[in-house]
Amino acid sequence: MHVRSLSNLECTRLLSDGRLAHLACAKDGKPYVVPIYFAYADGHLYAFSMPGKKIEFMRANPVVSLIVEEWGRGREWKSVHVEGRFEELPDRIGHKRERDHAWSLLSTHADWWEPGALKPVTPPLSDHSEHIFFRVFVDQLYGREAKEA
Fold first, then answer.
1. CATH of the domain at 111
2. Number of domains the chain is built from
3. How far apart are CA 142 and CA 61, in angstroms?
4. CB under 8 Å to 34, separation ≥6 — which residues?
5. Mean pLDDT for back-to-back runs of 10 residues, the chain (149 residues)
6. Does residue 10 belong to any structural domain of this protein?
7. Contact 58, 64 (CB under 8 A)
8. What's the confidence (pLDDT) of residue 130?
9. Which residue range forms the structural domain that includes residue 17?
10. What whole-number distance in Å separates Cα of residue 60 and Cα of residue 30?
């Protein structure tokens, strides 16, 4: 097995091609890791969620990290680690362009709203539920690749 570092271009290519990431956030010294669907563009990862634990944690502490993986044949793999900052794109004046941009990137994939819209709780009685679009500004990224020797 041979492991090597990925270039910045290779890292951004993997982010551009990827869809599933594991997001790590923390609040009051407690870590939380959850899978999210994302879209990458312009140095940001864009995502969607309903209110819940990850949004609560990121609002309290916007410093997050994500890992995106790609599996090859046998034991081969690539992974990119992202360190960045959460930024909510609220549904109000001043954020419409960024929110529409997030929606346009995410909606190119089928079921783009999963798993962010699925919660293991009884749905509210109201037909209205807050939709939260957010992005993570990529401060730093690095990646590795493992290939059979």
1. 2.30.110.10
2. 1
3. 22
4. 22, 23, 53, 54
5. 96 95 97 95 92 96 98 94 94 73 72 50 52 93 94
6. yes
7. yes
8. 76
9. 2-119+130-147
10. 12
Q: What is the largest CA-CA distance in the chain?
A: 57
Residues 6 or more apart whose CB falls under 8 angstroms from that of 54 comprise 23, 25, 32, 34, 36
pTM: 0.83
Question: Can you tell me whether residue 64 is helix, strand or coil?
Answer: strand
125: in domain: no
Under 8 Å between Cβ of 87 and 59:
no
- Are 100 and 89 in contact by the 8 Å Cβ rule? The answer is no
Q: Containing H/E element for 44?
A: strand 44-49
Is 107 inside a domain boundary? yes
The residue assigned the tokens 């034991």 is 75
pLDDT of residue 65: 98
Nearest by Cα to 116 from 59, 34, 42, 58: 34
DSSP character string of 57-86:
HHHH--EEEEEEEEE-STT-EEEEEEEEEE
Tokens 């993986």 label which residue?
Answer: 69
User: In this structure, which amino acid lies at residue 86?
Assistant: F
